Fold this sequence. Notes:
alpha+beta, CATH 3.30.860.10, two-stranded antiparallel sheet, 5 helices, 5 strands, extended
Amino acid sequence: xxxxxxxxxxxxxxxxxxxxxxxxxxxxxxxxxxxxxxxxxxxxxxxxxxxxxxxxxxxxxxxxxxxxxxxxxxxxxxxxxxxxxxxxxxxxxxxxxxxxxxxxxxxxxxxxxxxxxxxxxxxxxxxxxxxxxxxxxxxxxxxxxxxxxxxxxxxxxxxxxxxxxxxxxx
Length: 170
């Protein structure tokens, strides 16, 4: 009987939601952001390690510079907002997002520095906007911008199978 009363009392107070803390291969997000590139590369899969060991060429570095510029711009706006309204940074509006950076580099590997950025990834026809989240680290940009339209199978056409010879033409 006493157990029932404690359950009712507990039910009156909404339970606080606990969120799983993100970690990539056992390393939490804060540590990933502080890591040097050499330490970070050791955590990646073999194909990504090989790519980074061969060095990032001009195009991937240009993309990272554009992303830094977009993030710096939004950080400056938040700092200005906090200054003008006498608010602390943690009370600043959380919905601020950087402007999208368009790219054709579908083979770029996502690194922790990109988190929070919005990237327009070209799929051969349009730029699909992708917001980079911590779960995407180590993946290619192409994985989040599908380049083909998945097949929706309808009725078979004429000549598709031997039995379709007997389907009358419409």
